[in-house]
Amino acid sequence: MKGRENCTNDVYFNNCIKLIHNIFQKFLDVDSINYKIELEKTLEEIGFCFNLDRIFIYYFSKDPTFMQMECQWNRKEVNPKRKIQEEEAVYTLPWLIREIKNNDFVAINNTEELPNEAIFESETFRKEGIKALLILPLKNKNKLIGFVGYESLSKPITWEEHLIKILTDISRAFSYARIRITNEKTYKAIIDGQAILLNNSKSQIWALSNITSYATVNEAHAKFFGKKKDDLEYQDLYDIFDIDTANKLAEINWDLFQNNEPSEKELEIKNWKGENRLLKIKSKPQRDEVGNIKYLICTAEDITEQRLSEIELYKAKEQAESANIAKSQFLANMSHEIRTPMNGIFGFLELLQSTNLSLEQKEFICEAKSASEILLHIINDILDFSKIEAKKLTMEKIEFNLRSIIENSVSLFAPKATEKGIELHSMIVSDVPEEVIGDPSRLRQILNNLISNAVKFTENGEILVTVDYLEEENEIGLLNFEVKDTGIGIRKEEITNLFQSFTQADASTTRKYGGTGLGLAISSELVKMMGGEISVKSTLGEGSIFKFNVRLKIAKRASEQKNMFEMFDDINILIVDDNYNNRKIVSSYLQGTGLNIFEAEDSTSALTTILSNVNTKNKISVAIIDYQMPDMNGYQLVATLKTIPFVNDIKLVLLNRAMQRENGKDVKEHGFSSYLTKPVKRDDLLNCIATVLGLKKEEKQEQEVTTKNIVKEVKELSKPRILLVEDNQVNRKIVISMLKSHNMTCDVALNGSQALKAISEKDYDIVFMDCQMPIMDGYESTAKIRRMEGDKKHTTIIAMTANAMQGDRQKCIDAGMDDYISKPVNFEIMFNMIETNTKVRKVATEYNNIIHNYIDNFVKITGLEKEDAIEIFEEYIKCLPDLLSGINDAIQNSDFKKLEGLAHELKGSTGTLRMDSIHQLAVNLEQKAIKQEMNECARLFIQIRDLFC
After folding, report:
1. Shortest CA distance to 554 belongs to which of 430, 433, 428?
2. Cα–Cα distance between 13 and 19 in angstroms, integer?
3. What letter would DSSP give residue 670?
4. How many whole angstroms separate alpha carbon 383 and alpha carbon 332?
5. DSSP string spanning 226-259?
6. Torsion angles phi and psi, residue 501, rounded to 5
7. Long-range CB contacts (< 8 A, 24+ apart) of 365-374?
8. Domain residue spans of the chain
9. Which of 50, 282, 320, 631 fits a 20 to 30 Å CA distance from 529?
10. Which residues does the UniProt record annotate as the domain Response regulatory (predicted)?
């Protein structure tokens, strides 16, 4: 059902956007002939689109105390607003007219709730049967010229903000169109009166005998300058007008004579009142028998108001174009609604994958997860694209490790590359800055898109990601990135459209490889926002090279790691790999470290290098050996080396692909000291070499390896206290199930109000707070929790929300939350947050002596088997530290309300378990808490704690 509701909402908002766009387009082109017809059709469309009963438009008359209906619409079963359209007195609805003049809109959700002063309006609405009403003013240059009304006669309506915004935008189209048509009618009247111009025309007409001399003029032209006709005829301009006016007229007359043909010019000049007026002057030469200009006949139209109307219409056109931006904003809002069910899909698939499944079922789950990830990727692309279109996308400026961002992006696609049998390398020039300031997530997004495309469109060969930089002024680095593949390539004629939205080089690639065509368009915009450029070179069937650069501020230059490098001096290392790029990458990472580097392209060359240098200063100390080589693999090479006694002391490191990973035990059994996974990360490489040489403390590599790509379990130093605040049942079930799979539990609140109550009664290590909930949302709840806690304590609150728009994270932080995790939830991040925030508490086994003291009495009274009774006590002991800690905190903070609740809980549990001595003390503690006798509460708690211990 929810899918159908989302679909209905989707259709509804698309129809709204389409309606706004169509109305603006229609009223930009409408003329005086079809204006009324199109207006009636438009009101009908609006009425059916928004399920209204009646719509009407009034405009004020020349006498503003009267108004007249311009147009109306009503449903068939509803009476029209007015059967006869005639002038009506404004003062019959004094309160309503006053509200229209003073406000941007008048929204009446229920006419039964009108204020006392709306006496006439209440009676009118009652007679007409109006239940709800929305009035929007129509203005021209901020002057009220009329209003449009939307009525419901069937039921009250809550006029929502988005609906008022849509109808307000539409109302502007109405007022702009009417003003334009009114001006056009005036203009047409002037044109139609050309015949009358010859007989006392009000339009300006004159004839020039030369550039500065009038031959004749009409009264309108003379009147414009505050003069009489006789004052101008056969006179020189400089004898009639002031110097500025004469110069302006002479200048335009010169241009008209020079054209020597019918011409048109615009002139801004002052009239007799000193007002600047814009005249459109048309001229036509009258020639004598030999073709010389005898007179220049001129006419002038005052287009001042027309030009102002054109400016207003241009603004209206811009607003029409903003409908596309509204569409993009709508898509961004819809992504929130999509993320909520996506969270359910991802969560349940992950839970299902952890159950006992057949091979076929596991394959189905993998396919479902893959499809879900593709869907989420598309959603994220649409979200980013909509934010870019709406100009809402901004860049963060935070410090981050550049090398980690690059290496992690490459590593992300290594398994897929290995699965396809292609090599994926990364080469980062040694002097590339370590730390820069910018937006790491957006840089990662660009890299991920380009590398993902390279892997997708490459069937064999290799992909190489290289990074270097050129330092500019003021600590700004120009970072140059290149992603080179040996894939299918792109036709030359298709490259120009490659970075346009919803475009792929070849339609057939969409069918074969999938994709929306948004990724490169988004990447291009992100690169521009980072002050760079993106380009591509490609040969069909041979591969492509995507290049882009960005400008980032340098925070920390490349570290020289001097201490470690000094220890590397004069140590010889051999790199054995049949792939040239692999050897060069590893070799480049070791430059400047003091290591003497040797290379071998196969096992035979490696044996030759090792044996030929045994008794020299170039004796090999460390060999990094690729697992897969043409003549023999890495294991076979090591087996051969082990048969040679005088090279047994060489430290061996296995170099392996991502999906060929062995566990640490197997690697050591084959004679290797350690191993690295391609694509190699520089820091991992250096740390590995230092470790095998004994220059760095050896770490439990096997344990690291086996947990590297697995969701990290939370250390059970103590049971975490978790509160989940979530109104969506599916989301609750997922989180609870994931916690259960890690031997954890949580309390649940369905809204912010319940969360506030829970936190006031119990201490939590971490609270996962949804933001959009009924009764009280997450923002308000968090703010109240912070006020309640004050300086006494601080509960960690993590926003867990489907809001993923720019600024949503900051909104959560500003509300008082500590961190943010978006839906669909990354459970690895969630469990890391839990581990970080779980407080260390006393281990529950300290209270095991209560089993010895009270178990026999409990068994005797309840008749339970002793084993069952012990199990009940053990479960109680797990909860006991939290309960006693809470009582202690309440006493320390003089929080009698909390103390009363916890004492009541202790009274109930100890009574049930027949701990009579403790039960009686808990009864007394509750009573003293009610009376707020703090000294007695503290004394009783000491006795209770002693009995437990």
Report:
1. 433
2. 10
3. T
4. 5
5. T--HHHHTT-BHHHHS-HHHHHHHHHHHHHHHHH
6. -70, 150
7. 372/342, 372/345, 372/346, 374/514
8. 7-187, 201-348, 394-505+515-556, 572-693, 722-839, 846-948
9. 320
10. 572-693, 721-838
pLDDT band for position 661 (cuts 50, 70, 90) = very low
Report the distance separating Cα 341 and Cα 348, nearest Å. Answer: 11
Same fold, 201-348 and 846-948: no
What would the CATH number be for the domain defined by 722-839? 3.40.50.2300
CATH topology of domain 394-505+515-556: Heat Shock Protein 90 (3.30.565)
Pairing type for strands 204-210 and 293-302 reads antiparallel
Per the model's pLDDT, the better-predicted residue between 330 and 934 turns out to be: 934
Q: Is 785 left (phi over 0), alpha (psi -120 to 50) or beta?
A: alpha
Give the mean model confidence (pLDDT) for residues 214-235.
89
Which two three-digit tokens encode residue 235?
């006179």
The closest of 914, 933, 917 to 925, measured between CA atoms, is 933
Instruction: At 561, give phi and psi (nearest 5°).
Output: 45, 50
Within 643-777, where are the H helices? 664-669, 682-692, 701-708, 729-741, 752-761
The tokens describing 625, both together, are 């050996």
The overall average pLDDT reported for the chain is: 81
pLDDT of res. 517: 61
Structure tokens at 139: 């203005």
Q: What is the DSSP string of 590-642?
A: HTTSS-EEEEESSHHHHHHHHHHTTTSTT---EEEEES--SSS-HHHHHHHHH
Closest to 445 measured CA to CA, from 519, 385, 383, 497:
519
Third-level CATH fold of 201-348: Beta-Lactamase (3.30.450)
Neighbours of 622 (CB within 10 A): 21
Q: How far apart are CA 144 and CA 105, in angstroms?
A: 12
| Fold topology of 7-187 | Beta-Lactamase (3.30.450)
Q: What CA dihedral angle connects 35, 40, 46 and 51, to 10 degrees?
A: 170
Give the domain 572-693 fold: Rossmann fold (3.40.50)
